[in-house]
Amino acid sequence: MIPFLIIVGVIVLFFVFSYNSLISKRNEADKAFASIDTMAKKRYDLIPNLVATVQQYMQHERGTLMEITEMRAKATSGNLSDEEKIALDGKLSKAMSGIMVAVENYPDLKASTNFMQLQGSLNEVEEQLSAARRFYNAAVTDFNNAIQMVPSNIVASMFNFQAKKLFEIAEQERQNVDVKSLFKS
User: Fold this and answer.
1) Planar angle of CA 103, 104, 106, nearest 5 degrees
2) Which structural domain range is residue 101 located in?
């Protein structure tokens, strides 16, 4: 009887430890995604200041500036799923990099102290956002490995743990930026 109780105890402990480990890994991935949201919020808070500063100089980029403003409003509405947030973040990153490249046509703007401070702040936030994305992908990979590898996959399937999606950029964003096209309007 004692060997049977020991075996049952070991099995129960295995399930408890596996379940707790999976919960911990899932929560770590969720926390990492929340840090992306935090950095994105900082970026969204900087955008109105950047747009207001740049608008004074950039008459023919108004459409892009309006698009950035609309994306920011959508991002801060709070009605987006994680996948929609990831897609919107990619679009916003592309539009913001286009604005930074287009700024090269405006020497007075580039020399503006306000613009330089905003650009520095935005660059800092972009670096923090990039680091948060890497951390998220590492946490998601760890979680996904845990739910797919033996023996924890047994517990994961019993409790219906689902794999999380990595933060990836769209294929078009992997292409080199066509700077020439940014200056045509």
Assistant:
1) 70
2) 18-182
- Could you give the CA distance from residue 120 to residue 113 in angstroms, rounded to a whole number? 10
DSSP string of 122-137, one letter each residue: HHHHHHHHHHHHHHHH
- C-alpha distances out from residue 30 to 17, 143, 166, Å: 20, 10, 12
Q: Is the pTM of this model over 0.90?
A: no
- Domain tally, the chain: 1
- DSSP state, residue 165: P
Give the model's pLDDT for residue 179.
Answer: 46
Question: Would residue 142 count as lying in a domain?
Answer: yes
- What are the angstrom distances between the C-alpha of 22 and each of 11, 88, 163? 16, 29, 11
Percentage of the residues of the chain whose pLDDT score is greater than 70: 79
* 116 lies in some domain: yes
- Residue that wins the pLDDT comparison between 22 and 170: 22
Within a domain: residue 109? yes
Tell me the two tokens of residue 28: 């770590």
Could you say which DSSP state residue 173 is in?
G
Domain harbouring 39, CATH code = 1.20.1440.20
Cite the DSSP H helix spans in the chain.
2-55, 62-75, 82-102, 107-111, 113-148, 152-158, 179-182
DSSP one-letter code for 76: T
